[in-house]
Amino acid sequence: MITNLLFRYHQIRLQSELICEPLEPEDYVVQPIVDVSPPKWHLGHTTWFFEQMLLVPFMPDYKLFHPEYNYVFNSYYETVGNRVLRTNRGNLSKPSVVDIYSYRKYVDKCMKDFIENINLSTELLNIIEIGLQHEQQHQELLYYDIKYILGNNPLFPKYREESNNKNLSSATPLGFLDVSEGIYKVGHNSDGFCFDNEKGHHSVFLHDYIIGDRLITNAEFLEFIQDGGYQDFRHWYSEAWEWVKTNDKKAPFHWHNMDGVWYNYTMHGLKKVNLDTPVAHVSQFEAAAFAKWKGMRLPTEFEWEVACGIHQPSIPVSANLSDMDTFEPIQPTEGNYQFYGDLWEWTSSAYTAYPYYEAPEGALGEYNGKFMTNQMVLKGGSYATPRNHIRPTYRNFFHPHLNWQFTGIRLAKHV
Amino acid sequence: MITNLLFRYHQIRLQSELICEPLEPEDYVVQPIVDVSPPKWHLGHTTWFFEQMLLVPFMPDYKLFHPEYNYVFNSYYETVGNRVLRTNRGNLSKPSVVDIYSYRKYVDKCMKDFIENINLSTELLNIIEIGLQHEQQHQELLYYDIKYILGNNPLFPKYREESNNKNLSSATPLGFLDVSEGIYKVGHNSDGFCFDNEKGHHSVFLHDYIIGDRLITNAEFLEFIQDGGYQDFRHWYSEAWEWVKTNDKKAPFHWHNMDGVWYNYTMHGLKKVNLDTPVAHVSQFEAAAFAKWKGMRLPTEFEWEVACGIHQPSIPVSANLSDMDTFEPIQPTEGNYQFYGDLWEWTSSAYTAYPYYEAPEGALGEYNGKFMTNQMVLKGGSYATPRNHIRPTYRNFFHPHLNWQFTGIRLAKHV
Amino acid sequence: MITNLLFRYHQIRLQSELICEPLEPEDYVVQPIVDVSPPKWHLGHTTWFFEQMLLVPFMPDYKLFHPEYNYVFNSYYETVGNRVLRTNRGNLSKPSVVDIYSYRKYVDKCMKDFIENINLSTELLNIIEIGLQHEQQHQELLYYDIKYILGNNPLFPKYREESNNKNLSSATPLGFLDVSEGIYKVGHNSDGFCFDNEKGHHSVFLHDYIIGDRLITNAEFLEFIQDGGYQDFRHWYSEAWEWVKTNDKKAPFHWHNMDGVWYNYTMHGLKKVNLDTPVAHVSQFEAAAFAKWKGMRLPTEFEWEVACGIHQPSIPVSANLSDMDTFEPIQPTEGNYQFYGDLWEWTSSAYTAYPYYEAPEGALGEYNGKFMTNQMVLKGGSYATPRNHIRPTYRNFFHPHLNWQFTGIRLAKHV
Amino acid sequence: MITNLLFRYHQIRLQSELICEPLEPEDYVVQPIVDVSPPKWHLGHTTWFFEQMLLVPFMPDYKLFHPEYNYVFNSYYETVGNRVLRTNRGNLSKPSVVDIYSYRKYVDKCMKDFIENINLSTELLNIIEIGLQHEQQHQELLYYDIKYILGNNPLFPKYREESNNKNLSSATPLGFLDVSEGIYKVGHNSDGFCFDNEKGHHSVFLHDYIIGDRLITNAEFLEFIQDGGYQDFRHWYSEAWEWVKTNDKKAPFHWHNMDGVWYNYTMHGLKKVNLDTPVAHVSQFEAAAFAKWKGMRLPTEFEWEVACGIHQPSIPVSANLSDMDTFEPIQPTEGNYQFYGDLWEWTSSAYTAYPYYEAPEGALGEYNGKFMTNQMVLKGGSYATPRNHIRPTYRNFFHPHLNWQFTGIRLAKHV
Questions:
Q1: For D201-238, what is each residue's pLDDT tens digit?
Q2: Is C332 at the interface with chain B, CB within 8 A?
Q3: What is the dotted CATH code of the domain comprising A2-151?
Q4: Which of A99, A377, B46, D153 to pair with B153, CA 20 to 30 A apart?
Q5: DSSP characters for D149-207?
Q6: If you classify domain B176-414 with CATH, what class do you get?
Q7: What is the pTM of this model?
């Protein structure tokens, strides 16, 4: 049991470092927009979590690696003590990457001692689990942020070389699945791990609806662009239209029009947009505008979750995304899991508390609940999502204007 | 029938002008924040609606009052033609108040001709109805904006003198109503007028919950302030906390602490805060923080609507609000209507489309649907709300940080 | 003597009100940009000066017109007491225009008593004089601000009707006056009134230079526009170029291109640009860019002042400016005064202290000295300048990017 | 001759790299404020200058190191071609530090060939000289920026260890030098190199004045702080006062008050403020406010330059600055040079063109002239200034609110 836990701890901690392996030290440092964090901050912050949530309170005689790191790597600024220096993550060249890797080694060694020598109560096991899940969440953010940092660079450096043996296939015609009205159960209801925001298991009433059997492709989204979708206010929410105009939006994030041809930045550099793959890097504003233009809408989070539990789509997952061979392929372990996993799918649901939701006590209580305003739920998971985060009840959330994440579009409609 | 319509048209149009009757010309002009519109703009914009939606398209040989007014009074900027001058409503001294009253008279005369002489199809009757409802919505906004304009002035001018014969009563102890889990019908389901966003009548599943039998009072909110509620991040959403710090919030809007005593600006000038009346001018951020501090939460819009259809509260409505004698008292015409009508009640529901929602064609389609992002639903209605807008299905909506409206707090909880 | 002073006081106070005579109440209120003040604020602030600088400290038993007006009309915010409400001039509908005229009448009556009954020391006479000069400065600002307020309105309302009997003449060919190198005396050196910043009379050494015998005309400035002057960074200071791009500048302020024809807003409404009149409403950035494009430069304030004392230009002043018949014509009382008076002329001199400059004690010390950073000197005076402010030593000053004032361009060069 | 040039080229190019020697790769990347550039950008930009100004136009068959570097390292954005990607220097992790050192090596090798094999005309020699002077200017900026980057870090890392054998001495009492009124010659007038903005040699008339014989010390500046200097608006320009309030300024940049004790960040880490050394890291706003509080003023650039040519101060230069042993000591080669060299000294002179100033043709013309607005002249040079840039006519310039440079205060006054 402890061996398993140690092994899992080791695997997950290693995975964060493997993600950063192609980076040079300079790539670890920059923060081009406020939503992106420098890779070295992710590596430090996930380590800080184990140090502050476990070693400091529960490990006898634990000696801090560095007294200022609590300040530097704390994203929960509210609980910081008396010394307040205003700064931004992207302006900090220290701690250096080498220092942060030393920090990781030090904490990992102490965590090994901790796991081996401390009598682990359920509470402690739970905090360790959250620390591991937390690190996995940051692994996906690492991919987003690295892609932003490199794709924002005028030299368009590659994250990794592309493999040659790609198996490209055409997109299937878009079909729709039917779901009948009734009371459905949603929310987490198993022994496995879940975050507080997935609880509790509860009933919702849904009306008849149809939902797409696959994500919208680049070819389909290009039709929207070519039909003047970004120039016609009628497709957009009022705030979305302001966003389009203020930012002079003309295409998804990472897209560049060069001499009339659309390219997009991928983990393997700048490539011509592949018409058959799902359109990625759209904001919820763009997803909703596309849906409106199509005479449809985005599904609610419950419509998505219910459909996911019922249907098996006809296409293999992630067959030919440009970024894909950077990541491990998604294995369809159960039929209904094939429904998703390519890209996080925007829903029309605002991110709010489920019935009976209770935030945990203490610092862990800040994990999810305090973000339950002005954000939208995304379902499914992307090719960059750690495998064990892929479950129908998982609730990802982002502001509707953001699009540097790996996001996509699925259509729905009442019938 | 036409006589009735003409009479109603006349009554509603007159009401807008009566609201402005205490104003001097200067009060019609200013725009202290972007959310507030100058009173003269409201008077012009509601008139523009009748001109552009009815007279221009459907009245033969209609002659515009002024060719530029379409530009000046159009809040639907997207449909404006080729001439784009960037300006703000509060920077326009012309058209003068006198000109705008002339514009109103001109359009009113033409509308009289129109109603009397045109064969009114259902479609035309519907547009007239929306024009009247639209004007009534702006009547309430007029109150908000006038109160902002005067309350923002260092001289704290009164809108109107206070009457003397006030009937003050103490607040009743806060009780809670029980609602049992089950499928409930919500949304509009009668022959009466409703806005597109109240349709359609549909089913929702609710879990057991309790909901307050009255709004939170100033006395109760003062306890939150005195307990350091505005200084403790744990009660607030992350964005709400940013809002508190950035704006240095310490109390509801229109409140001023003078030498340790809390005053609030009312339509009758600056007054000591009345402990027994409902707390007003809170943002949804403040309402949610208060609820969290109380160990409860805000109701969803459906919980509110269902409770409203079942229960009758024990206290008379609006007995002793400071602003009240400026407005007509709310008449409890039916039992369940007594549930609300003091202040718009913040819910925890984001403002999104109901199942089967369809925006109307053309310019009217921009009325509600395009705002269905990043805003929260408010239910009930305030003492400034036109009487026929008070119905359980009405969905008001504002951004969660706004608090110049007449808003209040009702608590709820699952049990 | 006292009769003269009273008469002058009366004349100057009346003049401010005459300037506002064409306005409707709404025009007195708005503040479209931060640099513009509402006309009613000017009327109140100039009155406040007499109340606070003379009546309050020196008039026995003086009773304030209103206790809050010190706060409302004080532009010297630093000396304000303990009550700080953040607001902006353009957001205040009260005091009303009627109240402000009452305030003026009240203070004027008290000032009459004051002048007639108090033994006026030199110090008091000096403060009265500054109060009158101050009011005259605001008279010119009133013209700028009224023109901004009306010209910013999409209806382009006229300030006043244009007279018919205009005497238009062509611009003379641009000639240049020679000045030889040597030590020259500059600064104020007479018994007449001057502001602190014009003292002391001091020596400067100038090298040989030539200076234009008239201002640059609209025709000449149009050549700059048509030559792509606003599109070529080489003519502009680095900051000026940022200003051009950020504000998408393509022509002087108040100019509008309609279907390929240049119009400019004048006090008599929108007119085709008159090619023979001096170009007005240019920022110093535009003036300097034009000069660089011409292979010349702007004169220093000393070059301007010295040239002004030596030469008499060949053209009559202000013969045919569009705005002109709104104002009294400039009478050439002395030969060298003909050199200027059309428009304030930008110089290449930053506004800094003259040798031996000393700011007066107390609140009057804030009058000029505290603005001696980041602003540029303008010389001459415009057609809107009160006649007794037109003198060679007068130092007007504005930030180099501003162009809502009545400004023009004169060229110079070392030879 | 060529050997000398090659040697000098080598020495200067090496010096830039030596300055960066204590840095780790991460330190090369960040840009905490817009005025600071990442060290790697300085290294690339100075190299780009040689490539674009010499190798590309004058070296036959020169092959660019990388086609995109012209875009990445060009600070003269106006001449950039058709591809415009909006980004900021601090957001670019590529080119990596290693790549930039390769770029430097490549260009250095080509420049060696160029100098050895090309017939160097006066024009080419002049461009090489400007390239070297340009690199030396960036060497000083490197120190400013590195100090900002490290001093902004909550860990306060040291740039370099402090040596032990410090020779500390007390400050001498502040004395004043007298200069009599008359015509003086200023501006560059020798065979040595100078920048275009130092020309031409010209006459100015100065009135009698006194000028401090040394810079203001930390002890003297602390008196200003303790006397409430940062809280009293009367010492400050109006814009300076806004700056104080907006930025909550309470002390010079790099100062930190910890439990009532003032520390400042030095190149050797955080240290208690040394009372005897010149106060550094003040903006011109702070320098002018201090002078006003003292009843004096800052000298003009001409007063400074004339005094520098006449007097020899009594104290040794740079005896005990905390940062000093990071830099080579200033050698007093001529008597009057001892007047300065500790810190750049703010003057009261705006940075404008000297008489007969002509910007060079082409890209070099953008070097100085385009900045001649809204900036102030600094004279002297700091301990970080390359030795051959220390001359009385050198005109440094910065905006008056900036204080991350090595700046100090010298007082003056007319008598």
A1: 999 999 999 999 999 999 999 999 999 999 999 999 99
A2: no
A3: 1.20.120
A4: B46
A5: HHHTSTT---SSPPPS-----PPPPP-EEEE--EEEEES--SSS---GGG---EEEEE-
A6: alpha beta
A7: 0.91
